[in-house]
Specification:
The complex is a heterodimer of chains A (155) and B (534). Chain A has one domain (15-124). Chain A is 50% helix and 0% strand. Chain A has helices at 15-28, 43-51, 57-70, 80-93, 95-109, 113-118, 142-147. By secondary structure, chain B is of the alpha/beta class. Chain B is built from twelve helices and 17 strands. In chain B, strands 1, 2, 3, 6, 7, 8, 9 and 17 form an eight-stranded mixed β-sheet that branches. In chain B, a hairpin with a 5-residue loop joins strand 8 and strand 9 (261-271). The two termini of chain B are 32 Å apart. At the A-B interface, helix 4, helix 5 and helix 7 of A face helix 2, strand 4, helix 6, strand 5 and helix 9 of B.
Chain lengths: 155, 534
């Protein structure tokens, strides 16, 4: 691990790098008519992804470079089956880089209003409304009580 | 260097233990100052206030200081450890980001040598700490269910957290197997309590509680301590503890909020910097009088680092679970806590049952584990996983081993140029066997509860929440750093009150015990004031 005293955000992605990331995003999470959701390459979602790379910027850049290396050229130029194989190769050879790519994509995709609604989520932050959790029935513990103590005494 | 007005008591660190010791000593009306390298956290900054709450949990409120790299954080070289450190630097310390899981250690945990023939006994026992556990439970506001057969009787300050779908399903599974489980003791208010609003199930308490229901010490102990005139000085990072010709601590050198170097004289110095920050400070305080570091005549400062290896067992269910709603914790099991040598290892562990994750974490975990595919099948698989998981982590007792260490990194420094710590840590064979056992039994539990599939992982790499053992307590100055009431064997006005002084780690989250120890040491200081330095 490269331990640091400051963030490793690095310079923003170039236009080519951003286009490559958009290609990865659209392949990983495509639009779906069945679930009525956009893809992760949706204009609004991707703008969010590109502007919030933050601490992941350097790792994303390396991940994109590694994908091109594994593709023997350009990941974006591959057919769908070959993209899948290439991403699998990255997962096997360098999971942290794959994880960085997935992280920046899913953290913007799964806070999009359309996507949250498709997951039956309320489109809001947790606070201040909170959530309901059923209290449950603590009589479920009766058999545990009945078995008695299990701790050891100590001198 | 600026010299500031002397104080009677100087506390270094405003986390779980620093807050407790400050509150207890406040009644003496001594002049007490606490230096904290971080700042107060504003509850409106916590991630749960925002739509991108899961993203914010990965940033300024992330658990790893190297990743977070906020102004208050110091770097830690953890290259030689499979488990990375989780902490928070600020008023409240680790309690800002902990889950609020609040078990006590057990009576047998104090007598591991006597009962199980391993490690060392503590110089105190459960009965010594019991009254301090009780005070601490009331100060922090602990939700619990009385009558847990895994413990001696103890008070439940508030009703337990809701069982929820997760607790119900997993509890039924445990009952099928005939194994112990119970409502977890939780430092989370389930009713309005001492100015704190009750929990509204925001979920994911480990990024700070926007509601103020979780008991972080910035909103519990510190509020009362400051009303009793204890001063908390934030953004003040201590570089070293100074000593005088008598071999006593004379104060500290620190950098204030403007970066100015200051000397704070003090009659009593109390270190509360956690199991990594404390040995770092003591080792950085080496001088001609104490060439191997302060309070280190035993050579044990920084040795015996214990981290609690965690196993993770996740079940996938057809029926919906609680998902991201509600505190992550809720119930626990200590079926495998006490030693049973037929299992192939000594000592034991706690299962902490956990609810699910938000959509970002569900997708991230699922996709990197290749459980949720990319491409067109992604959406169907995501919906099968999201809100449909429940499981547990196993918190395994880690025995002390001198080769697990905190030392000073020869190169790495923090923003003030203070040498940073390096940890070296390896999981023992006993811990490995315990982890494997916990994964196997956990899988049985989830299958009994109806999971159609189970995923396991151990050790969890980013689970170094519990930092213990690096300035252990004991009666023998050659085998311990502090005595049986927290005073340095070598420096008679120097005390340590954090997890460093644990002799063994037990198989539970340590915060309740850390705070009980801090209250116990504070009481000893108060009772011995007339001859404290003898």
């Amino acid at each position: 691990m490269n331990y640091v005293t400051s963030t490793t955000s690095g310079p923003p992605l170039t236009a080519d790098e951003a286009q490559a990331l958009r290609c990865v995003a659209g392949y990983m999470i495509p639009a779906s008519d069945e679930y009525r959701v956009p893809g992760a390459d949706d204009e609004q979602i991707f703008a969010n992804i590109a502007s919030t790379l933050g601490r992941e910027t350097d790792a994303v850049r390396k991940g994109l470079q590694r994908l091109d290396e594994l593709a023997d050229g350009s990941f974006a130029g591959l057919a769908a089956d070959a993209r899948n194989v290439t991403l699998m190769k990255l997962a096997v050879s360098d999971l942290p880089l794959l994880s960085a790519l997935v992280t920046v994509i899913v953290r913007c995709y799964y806070r999009d209003d359309r996507v949250m609604q498709s997951l039956n989520m309320e489109v809001r932050p947790p606070f201040p409304k909170g959530f309901e959790v059923e209290q449950g029935d603590w009589s479920l513990l009766d058999p545990v009580r009945a078995r008695g103590r299990i701790y050891r005494d100590a001198p | 260097m600026s010299k500031v007005e002397p104080v009677d008591v100087l506390i270094i660190g405003a986390g779980a233990s620093g807050a407790a010791v400050a509150w207890s000593l406040a009644e003496t009306r001594m002049r007490i100052v606490c230096l904290e390298q971080g700042d107060w956290v504003n509850s409106s900054d916590y991630p749960a206030n925002y739509r991108d709450w899961e993203t914010r949990q990965m940033g300024d409120f992330g658990i790893n200081p190297n990743r977070r790299a906020n102004f208050a954080d110091y770097p830690i070289n953890e290259d030689e450890s499979p488990i990375k450190v989780a902490n928070f630097n600020g008023v409240g310390g680790g309690t800002i980001l902990y889950a609020g899981h609040f078990p006590r250690v057990h009576p047998s945990d104090f007598r591991v040598r006597t009962l199980d023939g391993v490690a060392d006994d503590w110089p105190i026992g459960y009965a010594t700490l019991e009254p301090y556990f009780a005070v601490n439970d009331r100060m922090m506001g602990v939700a619990a269910l009385a009558g847990d057969p895994a413990y001696p009787p103890k008070e439940a300050v508030m009703p337990p957290l809701p069982l929820g779908k997760t607790g119900t399903v997993l509890g039924r599974g445990m009952n099928k197997l005939g194994w112990h489980w119970w409502a977890a003791d939780s430092a989370i208010a389930t009713e309005d309590y001492e100015g704190r609003a009750k929990c509204i199930n925001l979920g994911h308490c480990i990024a700070g509680c926007a509601q103020g229901a979780k008991a972080s010490t910035d909103i519990t102990y510190w509020q009362e301590a400051m009303r009793a005139r204890v001063e908390v000085r934030t953004r003040c990072r201590v570089r070293e503890i100074t000593t005088n010709a008598d071999g006593m601590a004379s104060g500290v050198i620190y950098y204030d909020a403007e970066g100015k170097e200051c000397h704070q004289p003090a009659e009593i110095v109390i270190v509360a910097c956690n199991g990594i920050g404390t040995p770092r400070l003591l080792l950085n305080s080496a001088s001609s009088r104490f060439p191997n570091g302060l309070a280190n005549s035993s050579g044990l400062v920084g040795r015996n680092l214990m981290l609690h290896p965690y196993g993770s067992i996740t079940g996938f269910f057809d029926e919906p679970m609680d998902g991201y709603r509600g505190p992550h914790i809720g119930t626990w099991s200590q079926q495998f806590y006490e030693t049973d040598r037929s299992r192939g290892f000594v000592r034991g562990y706690t299962y902490q049952f956990v609810r699910g994750a938000g959509p970002v974490y569900a997708a991230l975990m699922g996709m990197t584990a290749l459980r949720i595919p990319w491409g067109h099948e992604h959406h169907r698989a995501m919906r099968r996983v999201f809100d449909h998981t429940a499981g547990m982590v196993s918190i395994c007792e880690d025995l002390p081993e001198e080769h697990n260490t905190v030392t000073i990194d020869p190169v790495l420094k923090d923003a003030h140029g203070i040498p940073a710590p390096k940890i070296r840590y390896a999981i023992s064979e006993n811990s490995r066997k315990m982890l494997d056992f916990s994964l196997a039994r956990g899988t049985e539990i989830l299958k009994a509860a109806g999971a159609y599939d189970v995923a396991t992982a151990a050790p969890m790499p980013h689970a170094g929440w519990h930092l213990m053992g690096t300035a252990r307590m004991g009666t023998d100055p050659e085998r311990s750093v502090v005595n049986e009431w927290g005073r340095s064997h070598d420096v008679k006005n120097l005390f340590i009150v954090d997890g460093s002084i644990f002799v063994t780690s037990a198989g539970v989250n340590p915060t309740a015990t850390i705070q009980a120890l801090a209250l116990y040491i504070a009481d000893n200081i108060k009772q011995r004031l007339a001859n404290l330095f003898d």
